[in-house]
Amino acid sequence: MTMSWHSTLNAYSGRDCNDKWNRRYRRRINRSGNRPARPESHKITVIYVSLDFKDHFSGNSENYKKYRPEYPAELFSYLTSIASEHEIAWDCGTGSGQTAKGLVRFFKSVVASDPSRSQIENAEEIKGIKYFVATAESSTLENGTIDLITVSQALHWFQIDSFFHEAERVLKPNGILAIWSYNLLSVTPDIDQIISHFYSKILGRYWPQERKLVESGYREISFPFLEVTPPYFEMRAEWNLFELIGYISTWSAVKEFQSATMVSPLDRLYEEIYPYWGEPSRKMAINWPLTLKIRKKVR
């Protein structure tokens, strides 16, 4: 049964933060989609959406855009340094465009695709980025035109072998395929333990099978092309407790838990973290190590 509402976060105001959270934690949202229309200049190209597309994120696209962490600028500088040319980059599985925004400073053009129209509609319109709705396996991009393909926290949702064939087709000779993922975040040992228990014990049965690929750092996947060994990168953020819970609300297993039980698991999580966080408006350092797989098409 699909729920007609989901948990949303309210901005912190006033001293009685814990009570305000409990009173205002939920509000009803019309999922039929009466949202303001995009300006006509925001062009969305619908190319092809496979019937096999597993959509875990469309129902939470706005929170996904708001709460997903940003990738480090150093990562994009590094990818630029190993790319032979800087004409066109393809960000595949772009979501709401976090990676595309990082690439556009370095490439003449960025094409950014996602099979979720809702995600693309929530992407920020930026000069130099063309967003379009398409699957990873059927992009309809021209043969041998792409200098860099990026896939951030998305490969596990693809039909992987078919996507690798598509990458082979569209990459230029010496083109770069860069794929990365991240698993659980780290705050403090006590908070990390609470989040780990929430992830594995509370949400465990609600994670899709594909999530195991992320947990293993994509070790089971046989990648094409010549391996390139990258340096270490990690994401960092300074978040308050509301922002942390907002990020966790974007997890696909949270959505599945709520659909199955009609209850949000986030209230209890907030209550468990609160004693270790202190004032919820307090900013704390958070980091996510990145698992980065780089390959170069040498023919």
| CATH secondary-structure class | Alpha Beta
Main pleated sheet: 9 strands, mixed
SS elements, strand count: 9
What's the N-to-C terminus distance?
Answer: 50 Å
Order of helices and strands: HEHHEHEHEEHEHHEEHHHE
Question: Which blocks of ≥5 consecutive residues have pLDDT under 50?
Answer: 1-42
Question: CATH superfamily assignment?
Answer: Vaccinia Virus protein VP39
How much helix, percentage-wise, in residues?
A: 25-40%
Q: Strand fraction band?
A: 15-25%
How many domains? The number is: 1
Short structural description:
The chain has 299 residues and is of the alpha/beta class. 32% of the residues lie in helices and 21% in strands.
Explain this structure.
The protein has 299 residues and is α/β, with parallel strands linked by helices. The protein has a single domain, classed as Vaccinia Virus protein VP39 (Rossmann fold, 3-Layer(aba) Sandwich), CATH 3.40.50. Helices cover 32% and strands 21% of the residues. The protein has 11 helices and 9 strands. It has helices at residues 17-24, 61-67, 73-82, 98-103, 117-121, 160-170, 189-202, 211-215, 241-248, 252-261, 266-277; strands at 45-48, 88-92, 109-114, 129-134, 146-152, 171-182, 226-228, 234-239, 284-296. Strands 1, 2, 3, 4, 5, 6, 7, 8 and 9 form a 9-stranded mixed sheet that branches. Strand 3 (109-114), helix 5 and strand 4 (129-134) form a beta-alpha-beta unit. 35% of the residues are buried. Mean pLDDT is 83; it is low at 1-42.
